[in-house]
Amino acid sequence: MIDVVSVVAGREISGTTGSVYRSKNPSALGQTVAEVRMADASVFTQACAAASDMKREWGAVPAPVRGRVIASIGRLVEANMETLAALVAAEIGKPFKEALGEVREIVDTCDFFLGEGRRLYGQTVPSEMPQKSLFTFRNPVGTVAVITAGNFPVAVPAWYIIPALLCGNSVVWKPAEYAAASAQALHRLCVASGLPDGVLNIVFCDGEETYAGLEEGLAKGLVDKVGFTGSSAVGARIGELCGRYLQTPCLELGGKNPMVVMPDADLDLAVEGAVFSGFGTAGQRCTSLGTAIVHESVHEEFIARLKKAVAQAPLGDPMADVLYGPLLSVRFAERFEEYCGWIEPHHTVVTERIGRISADNARPGFLGSPEEGLYYHPVIVDGVRAEDRLFREETFGPLICVTSFDTLSEAIDLANAPGYGLSASIYTSDAKAAFSFRAAVSAGMVSVNNSTSGAEAHLPFGGNGKSGNGSRQSGMWVLDQFTRWQSMNWDYSGNLQKAQMDVREF
Ligand code: UN1
Predict the structure, then answer these.
(1) CATH annotation of 257-448
(2) Which residue in 62, 66, 192, 369 has the most C-beta neighbors within 10 A?
(3) Which residues cross the membrane (predicted)?
């Protein structure tokens, strides 16, 4: 069993609330992976102060040197890839192969940003006046608080932590407690790569303590930027809190991601995409497929092929080659069962139970007794309507909705109706339809003949509407989150030249 503690300014803090959270293996609830010594709000604020104390020092390290630290993080993560992936698989039940992909994403992120250490370009800009030079610089924002979910317990945090550090910021990271051991492992690898104490702190505390600690940190001017990945409801609360202190957080929230299947689509490809993005990671990605919006002429055929593909997909032990393993934790499983309660009489549940892990099926929907693993059978619900709760809200589990349409314009309306806007996909061989869809769908990410999930680490990642506040992570675009532009003008004429007033006319 792994003992998990907070680390502030290089010092381990072994819990201040007296409470211990047990992070269980969702494939075998009897097995505790980690005991997390939970901290309270004051530890979160202390971590903000520790990070804030280091921000000048770290920000003054030349960016290429920070880039070298990022390079060693990448190398160290790569050298420990299998161990880290196995820990992720044990702690949240993500299939090992996917977990390896997740760890690979950290390495990709490091590869991208180590080079940015030698760029972080500013500009030279012409002045209105002679003998005057104008420049722009990217300055670090200062202290970044990173609060992350556990469905991507190491890659998504790295999307914040790596560029934030590269840009010269110090960081306080609050991971999800149900993925605490994976988070602690990543934190240790980062610190071992040469980060000075206090530059990357990690705090384990529950939601309310985090909120209180963050508020105090913001009020005391110890937090300059918040990065949050998680539900839209919590994101709204964090956004409100930051707004009170005139801050714009980077919010990466939920999704109800649509996939439009046009009459000319390659149906097998579309079905494969629906299976991967609907049921991969047990549907627990922010980019998971929400609703397949299928043209009425191919709707029946799509359902038939989808049903067959899902029935053949192996589920179960995350260490085996499976489509998906258990749900993340008991809390997520309970919530998913509630979402299944949104199925209405006018819906058709297409999938039947496709297997049993054990004989006594203790709860409806589970493939076996939940204690032996939070395995849930795949659910496909046909006949959803735009006004249904199931259609409008994220269900974060192995459930996909299907509905049909007649014209592309109707499909676009349906795609936008839930008010999220993260990822959207269209399957078609018609370029005009694909580009029209791209322009009209409100989504940060659009796929053509590809599923809604599986974004690459060097493209902008993020959403609109209920999926976020328009901020973008990843690639060069995230630099605008973790740096602030500063302009400088330098007048070497020896005179006071007044902008707008002393401009020479020709
Ligand atoms: C998330 O679920 O928070 O695009 C991120 C994808 C992943 C990231 C998902 N690379 O599916």
Answers:
(1) 3.40.309.10
(2) 66
(3) none
The residues spanned by each domain of the chain are 39-254+473-484, 257-448
- pLDDT (tens digit per residue) in 320-375: 999 999 999 999 998 998 898 899 999 998 875 543 333 444 454 677 777 778 99
Ligand 1, pocket residues at CB < 6 Å: 151-152, 156, 229, 285-287, 453-455
Handedness of CA 471, 138, 145, 224 (dihedral sign): negative
For residue 396, the tally of other CB atoms under 10 A from its CB is 24
Backbone phi, psi, residue 399, to 5° = -140, 125
List residues with catalytic annotation.
Answer: 252
Model confidence at 312: pLDDT above 90: no
Residue of 287, 288, 450 with the most ligand 1 atoms within 8 Å of its CB, for mutation = 287
The CATH class of the 39-254+473-484 domain is: alpha beta
Q: What is the DSSP letter of 441?
A: S
Q: Which long-range CB contacts under 8 A does 238-247 form with residues at least 24 apart?
A: 238/147, 238/211, 238/214, 239/469, 241/211, 241/214, 241/215, 242/218, 244/218, 245/218, 245/219, 247/218, 247/223
| ipTM (interface predicted TM) | 0.94
C-alpha of residue 421 to centroid of ligand 1, in Å? 14
